[in-house]
Amino acid sequence: MTKKERMESLEFFDMIGHSIEGAVKTKMFGTICYKIGRKPFILFEEGDIVCKLFDEVKERALEIPEVGFFNPMGGDKPMSNWIQLPYSAKDYWEEYAIYALDFVKQGR
How far does CA 67 lie from the centroid of its chain? Predict the structure, then answer.
């Protein structure tokens, strides 16, 4: 990913975060995220969006090319309910950010 693409992806990420009423921009895992209350629901990682997803929504997201589990530490222990969608899948970002928001609002 070029520097220009990374900046574009960050702007797109911020546009989504700012459009959600009550969402607060902060940091988690050393990267930008948006929270509702104290609960994060999306974060920005290396030009990608990472969404907290569950159940069939998570499974549908994993069917999108290049989408996978968020693995901030590397190795064999990815975060099972955090799904990383690359900028190439940006057409899905807002949809899955809203799903992530709904899950967090449900207390998940």
Answer: 11
